[in-house]
## 1
Amino acid sequence: MTNGSRIAVDAMGGDEGLAVMLAGVARARRQFEGRGLDLRFILVGDEAAITEGLKSHPNLTAHSEIVHAPGVVGSSDKPSQAIRRAKTTSMGVAIDMVKQGRAAAAVSSGNTGALMAMAKLSLRTMPGIDRPALAAMLPSLGENDVVVLDLGANTECTARNLVQFAVMGAAYARTTLELQSPRVALLNIGSEDQKGTDEIRDAAQTLRLATHLPMTFTGFIEGDRLSRGEVDVIVCDGFSGNIALKTAEGTARFVADLLRRAFKSSMRSKIGFLISKPATDLLRHHLDPNNHNGAVFLGLNGLVLKSHGGANEIGVATAIGVAAKMVRDDLTRRIAEDLGNFEAKAA
Amino acid sequence: MTNGSRIAVDAMGGDEGLAVMLAGVARARRQFEGRGLDLRFILVGDEAAITEGLKSHPNLTAHSEIVHAPGVVGSSDKPSQAIRRAKTTSMGVAIDMVKQGRAAAAVSSGNTGALMAMAKLSLRTMPGIDRPALAAMLPSLGENDVVVLDLGANTECTARNLVQFAVMGAAYARTTLELQSPRVALLNIGSEDQKGTDEIRDAAQTLRLATHLPMTFTGFIEGDRLSRGEVDVIVCDGFSGNIALKTAEGTARFVADLLRRAFKSSMRSKIGFLISKPATDLLRHHLDPNNHNGAVFLGLNGLVLKSHGGANEIGVATAIGVAAKMVRDDLTRRIAEDLGNFEAKAA
């Protein structure tokens, strides 16, 4: 991360409130300091409340400035309503810090739809991009995590949207996972050419021909293979992506609940559980959504990250860490370059 | 199950071949015999191969007749092609047994798209139903399994399709789960009214007003709550349903793989694993897709069930068992009654 660059944090967003946001930011700062990196923050929201909250985090205070915003976007506010009062809300002002160049990225745990609408209106999409997409890294059995997009920013998508998502997702994987030619697949309900919607088939057709791009298009992937580590980028519309992401989260929790019940079912299994606890703790850590928090809107002229509304202190710190790495890697510029090459060769 | 009624089995469908199909049928027969029920079968496919295969299952032979069909539907055959040679294939002839009234249900592990197309063409949809839907029971943390439909028969759906699926899914839950007024929800990417596609919002609007139906519409449900046991029926288009079902399967396997790795990571955890093995075996049994096999096409004038292509002997037996229970419960008539009431009151 370039010294002196700052991350703007919507201190008021999220279901867990200001205290958890500040604790998460403070934790991220400590972690990066331990690795010799100096993170600095612009904390946006109710100035009095933030000042009060910072009393528990003196080290964070020294590395932060506060920017006052009186309003908060509610979790059930419609994006169209939220946009109208953008300039008075902590979310809108945090994004504005990026637009003004005062911050290198903005992070919010607030309402996803409002965040997307405000970010798009304020920062605008990159040349060649019709709509931004929400992307995140999911754990896999492979050597690296897998980039999945769109995760809910666009309920319905055209073939052209999906192709743009593929190019941006590949650029993200090239930058963050340091892969030369990421393997990219389209999420579908079968692996055969004729499966799925017209949009998906048309997108596949375009991607198959785009051999000049720094990616390897591998065709369709089904829901049961998302975590196998067979591809590096999975592209889908926001509806399917949101269903897949949440179903994966819910199923992991379901299996963990069943496991807990199984371990409690007899004295013998309780003893086995105690003995193998270090192993199951490792598993719990690996599956905890807080350790995979931080989704980014790709395709905007600036970095805006969405942290899970229910994230705890660790989750918020994870999202801040993702933002810091993207600033360090200059992700926005790298994506713009890849898009430029795509457009130039396609023309 | 009414004595004398038969289940037609597509003996040639499925990735695992004839031997697994016959072993699965034989296993189901033994299990039901143990409970005092006499299952009888029509085995459809290559007569010589079935006769040879039955030599390993003398008890099944005594409860089966063979109907010859020379052709097989391949797993990558297009439905439109498969339909043209329906009458010569094991899949098409098995369905025809239901149409002729010789069998009370047909079960196939073959190509889902072809099975759907053939079943619809041969048996036709019930009055008031535009399209059949593929429904299955998924495990949950609640007192009963949860009915999910559509799981892939219809890639895109109108609001009207979704409403019909809700009525059929509720009838299925009333019959099979013996619930008076099943809780029905629409799968969506948020729980607020304005979330999702027009189709989903319109379907919700209709279902909210349909208070005369023997179901309780609870609104939207997100992917992370599918297995919580909060609802009895989850309704979605076939694309989302397929993504959710397969993502859940894949995630359960992913967690199990991580658990295996964790248990192998040290001597201590290996010992803990051995001690708690009965508990984890129970979990594995609970999550094994073979123990939840057997999806049914709802909305046809006859019972056609889809067994997973990769099902093993236990999986095939599970699907046969699901078919036998539907025959016993007279599911088709019960759904027709509920649809009749829906139409009558809506008119």
Note: The domain at 1-125+299-328 of chain A is CATH 3.40.718.10 (Isopropylmalate Dehydrogenase).
## 2
Amino acid sequence: MITGNTELIAHIGYPTHSFKAPMIYNPYFEASGIDAVVVPMGCRPEAYPDLLRSLFRLENVRGALITMPHKVATVALLDEASPTVQVAGACNAVKRGADGRLVGDLFDGEGFVRGLRRKGLALEGARALIVGCGGVGSAIAASLAAAGVSRLGLYDIQPQAAEALAARLQAHFPTLSVRLHTRDPQGCDLVVNASPLGMNEGDPLPIDMDRLSAQTFVGEVVMRAEMTAFLAAAQARGCRIQVGADMLFEQIPAYLEFFGYPSTSADHLRALARLSY
Amino acid sequence: MITGNTELIAHIGYPTHSFKAPMIYNPYFEASGIDAVVVPMGCRPEAYPDLLRSLFRLENVRGALITMPHKVATVALLDEASPTVQVAGACNAVKRGADGRLVGDLFDGEGFVRGLRRKGLALEGARALIVGCGGVGSAIAASLAAAGVSRLGLYDIQPQAAEALAARLQAHFPTLSVRLHTRDPQGCDLVVNASPLGMNEGDPLPIDMDRLSAQTFVGEVVMRAEMTAFLAAAQARGCRIQVGADMLFEQIPAYLEFFGYPSTSADHLRALARLSY
């Protein structure tokens, strides 16, 4: 129950209707006796910098979960950015450091990779394709590179987004082979939809499914439904898949530690969560 | 349960530990199927103007409940102030009007007066004393004047606060007799503690209890405990009393209407509330 002593974790993005974090964190906080609550804040880009600064001047704001469309814009607002933030050029977690400094980190890539590993996918030397090079796509790219993939294809409808990500990746991972401006899945061990395609009814699929082999592992970041049209089509072709919610659950223990709360396992969080699809 | 579709009512003040509104509104919202939540925001004065403006640029903020120390400062931030706000020089409710305008009103005085009336106190022609002329004291003064009291004593440890309130009152209620700078309760039908005295252990009582008659009705705004030291002392002298929480419950139906939510009775709200003293 929320009282005057409850701490806030602001969940900031726009639109908010597909937010899942409140239904994951809040049942865990309640079950664990942690007096905190995640609250959605629907914020348009033009209002975001002022909002973030104002929120962190509040006494009972412990941190913020940042989602689309603010993950990239957040980087410039930080006083202190983790190495992952620097590589990905995106940030999804902010807390107040010493002297009121804003400290940022990025956990979706780590969550995505943890999920793949739990499903038995070997990433060392793998060839991967990421469609969508915004905040979450950049995060996954940074984490896949750190996990040892040998080749990474990057595609975005805004070519310069893919190019900028490639430059940051190659500065940190000089032996990584980066391929730009193709979304052909042939020959890939892993294909990731990190674009918003699938958020809305009738969206086209992110890749040409006829070029997708059953040996390719397919991952998704869209969480509008547990099984998106893209994942259903991949599964129909025989591919192993990772749903968007897996990335979400696997990254939450890292967030909890970052904010300084007692942490737990992704499985425990999933068992407590009150998500309805 | 909070989801991405939940609307926020920001409850802004500092400190927040004595906030009661979350435990009153939230059980009502839950019981009534209203997808909204009141969340505490501990905001220091220097951070407040930016915070208020930023919050009202959020898509899912329906309104704000304003409490100490921001009720007076809010008036200057409004685009549109109700007559009560103008008289009291204080505001405790803000919503977004047309074109994003900030619209403010003030309900504690109305809540206080409704509570007195329900207890059978006749206010027409009554003589009242208010100790504390900040936001809530000013609100009660405005509502008592509108309810027809004939004489109003105003006392504040900052004399200019009482004087400024007196000037605003007399501009709107020219026949009202205002007495300044005395907190002698003798001869009063009603004495109100609208000061923070009682918020902290060991606070002195707001008036000299030896001068208090059993015929005087005594009201309190402090809600730290159901029965404050002041109310206990008044009751021991035989006075009828009104606890701080009564003002709170009686004003909430007015707030709900102001925000555009389905309203209910103070008794219904009290039955649902999860307050612990």
Note: Chain A touches chain B through 37 residues (CB under 8 Å).
